[in-house]
Write a structure and sequence with these properties.
By secondary structure, this protein is α/β, with parallel strands linked by helices. About 50% of the residues lie in helices and about 10% in strands. About 0% of the residues have low confidence.
Length: about 725
């Protein structure tokens, strides 16, 4: 009998889907569903989750109700199911995109017994007329796709998902299959509790995707790096994720300006444009989609070759799911994320104003992301540990940390010190509190618990927080310490940790990345401090000589003509036309026209003499800035508005406003800010600063100016007069 059933299953697999064998856990999952039992499926993207409910739906009597979060995903799956079947009505969806006639057609097919899969968004499922319709039909089972949306601890929580169980009870009981490509043990338990399926059979596939390469890069000139990467991988499909709609649009525009076939995708676009852009990507009319996380859930494109995160995601689950869209066919899949701690601080700011519990969860998820990004441990090991899976290999050979390992340092003594301290303070504190105790930092919280009086307080002061963070992370990976996610990441030593204190063994750690410092080191290695591309030092020296000559002719300090970063960029990209010169960092249209000709002639001659093959395909073109800030600031200064009012109107602090003005001025735009300086600054002080830049300054360095001018002058005053000076003398 069993052989007969197996034979039938394989016959149906071949008949409907054209496959001769199952992948991973698929067969066991499908048999469990066919037996009418509740089923929980954890399977990474590309593992074949949808087959786990599609095949049993086609075999079983009645209609399978599939609950899914995205209209685009439903449409994709319904189209795919119809392509497998001769019966057009085999699969349908009911959602807000259908008109009354279409809804009537769907219901007619369902009642006639033609339909085997009926897709709903959770919002549509709650509608009373849909509930009463579903009570009339035989339901084979409920499939809840993207089930992590149920959990507040998941990365894509949707409140309406938490109401699915009461609605199922209202419609009539049937088995449930819940499926997700990403769930930590905590999220898994939350889903099962909420759906009332604690007794479900759990099928957990490995979350390891050996073909995916993981890399974190410091966020420095990220847009330029992305353009160069795409140009080096021409013709390959890729997805770039940004956190804001504004950044999606800016980056798409920049890609198009650099002749890269790209579309934008975000929730602010109308549905028709979104669907068309997605189809163009699937049909390979465009190579790249720049998107917010709204894109890609259920996108069945097997040959996405790279997934780039311009912004670091809000959680490791989000990161895992988004990177999981690369290399689903088992081929190349490169996952590159740009990381800056400033982005994390921005994300924390956005959380303000949300309920406290939600803020706590959000911050904890962010800390896990920071920990992953800054860690020097194998990326694969860290990711899999987060999802409750042990990865035993020491070196995965397919992530930046394993391919370029940092030297290990012995940390056995420090591990023992950390565990002893954790034992003494107990299990009511997070990692940052433990680190403060080890470093001997007397915070108000430490005082209130009296931990500043402990013998161990400050015992680890010779190491910094970054070092202790690496020790704690290693303890978690070794299983010596537990992190109580339920209670916002509180740490506790466990039995294995206590045993380690009794019988210690050697422990080595790799120190975390400090991306800000690494960026500075990288910059310092260049002639005068700009990261990215290797500058041609001979040309750079010639450009500096020419700048001196041009400055002398105009009676100006050299930095007013072009700043050092601009000369470095010229010695990387070799601009030989006015248009190319305008795309050089810090050179706008105005500066290119005023000073560019002689520099272009010199570079052209140099390129011909040295027979240099210019990296033209690597030259990143800028786009005319449409930044609302830039236009608004220029117009406001023209109208002689007070700077405080300009800053307030654009939600900037004064420091940020000055930086925006400096950027505008350094690229060659002339602004007259004398009205503001005259009103708020002493005339003699302004004159003295102006003369310093005209006659004494060797560079535009703020630190040098502060040293030379003395403590009577503030940084703000010097910056304001420097802006005026560059406008009057150079622009």
């Amino acid at each position: 009998m069993k052989k007969q059933e197996d034979s039938l299953l394989y016959d149906k697999l071949r008949e409907y889907f054209g496959f001769t064998s199952f992948k991973g856990n698929q067969e066991a999952v499908i048999k469990n569903v066919l037996a009418g039992r509740d089923t929980f499926v954890l399977m990474p993207t590309g593992g074949g989750k949808s087959l786990c409910y599609q095949l049993p739906a086609l075999i079983m009597e009645g209609v399978a109700i599939v609950i899914s979060p995205l209209i685009a995903l439903m449409k994709n799956q319904v189209d795919a199911m119809r392509s497998f079947s001769a019966e057009e009505g085999v699969a349908h969806f009911l959602n807000s995109s259908l008109n009354k006639t279409a809804v009537a057609q769907v219901r007619s097919d369902v009642l006639a017994g033609k339909t085997k899969l009926l897709y709903f968004a959770p919002e549509s499922l709650t509608k009373e007329d849909n509930i009463s319709f579903l009570r009339k039909i035989k339901i084979s089972f409920f499939a809840i796709d993207e089930a992590h949306c149920i959990s507040e601890w998941g990365h894509d929580f949707r409140p309406e998902y938490r109401r699915i169980r009461p609605i199922i009870n209202d419609i009539g009981n049937a088995p449930i299959i819940a499926l997700t490509a990403t769930a930590t043990p905590k999220v898994q338990m939350d889903i099962q509790k909420n759906l009332g399926m604690l007794d479900a059979a759990i099928f957990r596939s490995s979350f390891n995707r050996p073909n995916l390469y993981y890399e974190i890069r410091p966020k420095h000139d990220a847009a330029k790096e992305i353009i160069r990467y795409i140009k080096q991988n021409e013709g390959k499909s890729g997805i770039i994720y940004c956190l804001s709609r504004k950044k999606v649009e800016e980056l798409t525009e920049l890609l198009l300006a650099n002749r890269i076939k790209a579309h934008a995708y975000h929730a602010g676009m109308d549905a028709a444009t979104r669907a068309a852009n997605q189809d163009d990507f699937l049909m390979e009319k465009v190579d790249v989609i720049v998107a917010t996380i709204a894109f890609g859930m259920g996108i069945d494109k097997p040959d996405v070759r790279y997934v780039i995160h311009y912004d670091i995601p809000k959680s490791l689950e989000g990161y895992y799911q988004e990177t999981g869209r690369a290399g689903r066919d088992g081929g190349e899949g490169r996952c590159i994320a740009f990381y800056s701690y400033k982005d994390i601080q921005k994300l924390e700011k956005f959380m303000q104003g949300k309920p406290v519990a939600e803020q706590e969860i959000g911050k904890l998820l962010l800390l896990e992301t920071v920990s992953y990004a800054e860690s020097s441990i194998c990326r694969r090991k860290t990711l899999l540990h987060y999802f409750g899976e042990e990865y035993t290999e020491e070196n995965c050979g397919n992530c930046d940390n394993c391919l370029h390992p940092k030297p290990k340092v012995d940390a056995g003594a420090e591990m023992q010190l950390m565990l002893r301290t954790l034992t003494v303070i107990g299990d009511k504190f997070k990692a940052d509190y433990l680190i403060n105790v080890l470093e001997g930092k007397t915070t108000a919280m430490i005082k209130s618990y009296g931990h500043h009086k402990l013998e161990l307080f400050g015992a680890g002061e010779e190491h910094d927080a970054r070092f202790w963070g690496a020790v704690i992370r290693q303890a978690l990976i070794l299983g010596l310490v537990d992190k109580n996610i339920e209670n916002y990441g509180l740490l506790a030593i466990n039995e294995k940790g206590a045993d380690y204190l009794r019988n210690p063994f050697p422990v080595q750690i790799t120190l975390d990345h400090d991306y800000d410092a690494e960026q500075e080191e990288e910059a310092a290695a260049l002639p005068t401090g700009k990261g990215g591309g290797a500058a041609d030092e001979e040309l750079f020296a010639m450009l500096k000589d020419l700048r001196k000559k041009v400055a002398k002719q105009h009676g100006l300090p050299p930095f007013v003509v072009f700043q050092d970063p601009s000369l470095e960029d010229m010695s990387v990209h070799y601009p030989i036309t006015l248009e190319e010169m305008q795309n050089i960092s810090g050179v706008g249209v105005g500066k290119a026209r005023k000073f560019g000709e002689e520099f272009i002639r010199l570079i052209k001659r140099y390129v011909e003499e040295k027979e240099i093959v210019r990296p033209q395909d690597m030259v990143v073109k800028g786009v005319a800035s449409k930044s609302g800030n830039k236009v608004f600031i220029i117009q406001s200064i023209d109208r002689q508005m007070d700077f405080a009012d300009i800053a307030r109107a654009r939600d900037l602090d004064f420091e940020e406003l000055l930086t925006e003005i400096e950027t505008i001025v350094n690229s060659g735009t002339k602004l007259n800010i004398s009205y503001y300086i005259n009103e708020y600054m002493d005339e003699d002080k302004a004159e003295e600063i102006y003369l310093y830049f005209k006659e004494d300054a060797e560079s535009d360095s703020l630190d040098e100016a502060l040293r030379e001018l003395g403590s009577d002058f503030t940084e703000e005053e010097i910056r304001l007069v420097r802006i005026k000076f560059i406008c009057e003398q150079g622009n």
